[in-house]
Amino acid sequence: MVETAIADEVRALLLLLAVLPSVQDVAEHGPYAAVRRVAERRTLRLGLRGGPSVLVRLTGASCLVDPDPVTGSGVATGDVLWLEPRQIDGLFDEEAPPEGDRDLDMVPPELIVLIRRAVSCWNAPEALRADPGSPELCTRVALTTAVFAVPVLLAHDSKASAFRGAFAAQGALALQVAPDGPCAGLRFQSGHMRPFRGDVDDPSALVRLHGSETANAFLRSRLNIPAAVARGDIEMWGYIPVIDALTLVLERLGKYLRPERSR
Amino acid sequence: MTEQRSMARHTLPTYTYSRSHALFERATEVIPSGIYGHFSPSRVVPSAYYPYFAAEGRGSHFTDVDGNDFIDYMCAYGPMVLGYNHPVVEEAARKQAEKGDTLMGPAEVMVDLAEYLVDLVPAASWAFFSKNGGDMTTYATMVARAATGRSRIVAIKGGYHGMAAWMQGSGQCGVVEEDVANVVRIPWNDPAAFERVLDEYPDQVAGFISTPYNHPSFEDSALPAEGYWRRIRELCDKHGVVLIIDDVRCGFRLDLRGSNEYFGFTPDLICFCKAIANGHALSALVGRADLKDEVSKVRFTGSYWFQAVPMAAALACLQELRRIDAPRLMAEYGRRLAEGMVRLAEQHGFHLKISGPPQLPYMRLVDETLMLHQRFCGECTRRGAYFASGRNWFVSTAHTEEDLQSTLQIVDDVLSTIDRSDPSRV
After folding, report:
1. Of all helices (H) and strands (E), which one includes residue B97?
2. Which of B371, B372, B379, B391 to mutate to test the interface with A (most CBs of A within 10 A)?
């Protein structure tokens, strides 16, 4: 029971702090301009009562997600705070109707659509392959989810926390989709770790993922990494131990964000 | 086999590896990861610049399955010390093979070898044989626990002593918390940290295991500070802790009597492997007299641990190493290699940092990241000087003056052409 409760809590934190930031990618890069437009500017705080929360700013044409606990403390026009970690699942459940759920009354339906699109991008990129732009979008969603998940897992997952020491160095770990795909990563400074999107100069460790398919498989721990490196599908450069640690931490992500958990 | 680069600034041809890659594809069908462990192509950067499969070795060179020839500065990650296919060692192995290898009982050569080791290594009153370094480090910790009746083992952070579950870090696949629960890690060169552990776990520490100097992966090597080993020895004596030296990597390269002699201290147990038999599968645990009975009590054996051929090879190897004063030869070559490379680096405006002893140098092209160094090692490798970037290199007694000059020519060529601005762009 204790293990289940802990797993529920870690999953809730991952949904809030790792999956929710990828909604910004869906809004910016997905072919969903119609649904992402909301009539009024709104800033929602989504979170666990007494726990972390995330600010989501809906400003007409964009959806900015700020999971940073410091800068994320800005003024919200509405709070949606759940009492139990498990209750958060409803927001991320691809198959649940967005209407009729009292917990979600405060959440604009446009945002719910974006969130569930992000979830489907994470869960089943293969199923979306035929959709125009979907492989690239799924890669962006996976990149964001993965890098934002690392600090959560290091802090809250007992197995992943064993690798905290590997991330103690200064510098940045970058994940880059080649030849000209997105980049995201983690910056390390003075014992702190911050996920980022976009390019970074002179990373201390670099994983270059050749193609969306390779990236999607790598980020979801569905790849034989040594074989992929040998074939040239993945390049690893710089301080390799931090990349080794990253791959082991990402293995833990699947334990919490398995597709069946959200159904 | 080779291609002349279209860019005119390259003067030396670079290798290609089509057969290696084809063989790797076959391997992935039937072998996990294709090639596993330390020979996995994923461990060298950029892997496309390295051969995956070897075909044969002679002296200081090996050829890959594409027919490319390399001056080998990794020496099969240490076992090759006299040169591949060394005539003296192979003749001894062949003679023993004619009589038998795995027989219904150990051969006489096992006793000969044990006597030779006891004579050669001052810290050894007995010798025990198995196959790999990890066998012996694991066995040494069991002996320490048997001798003391305690459970905890102190090791150095980042220290590597084989792939047994107790030695791998918490969180690694297949490792459970219980496997590593009794291993306490402390920083290198920090006797005060060891003292704190001894205070924190009174009468619980069975053994202190460490390499004679620190040679972590992806970091510079670090020699023991003045007085470090003396203080560790004192603390082990005071608290009844068994001092175990993992001499698997350095053994017989720094000092034939054990690397502890090189650094001036006496351990209780020493684990040897790699260079002991010039590539034949053998490892050894040696130790102080009063631990012999404890060793006898700890059950440990394996199907092929009594193979006579590797023991005959080891005896011949050790005798030859002693005859030619091998550590001195390797140190001289290592020093000249380092001096030549540092000089070339300076000429081309680079800073090449050398750490560790000359027989096992860790050479690093200094940069904000390791990427320039990785590119440098890869470029040298695909021109015929096999350098790995993530760990120390190995010098052998087979490396020749011609090897040295060829190596420096390759280094000069690479340093004159390497792209400093974006070394990861291949």
Report:
1. helix B87-99
2. B371
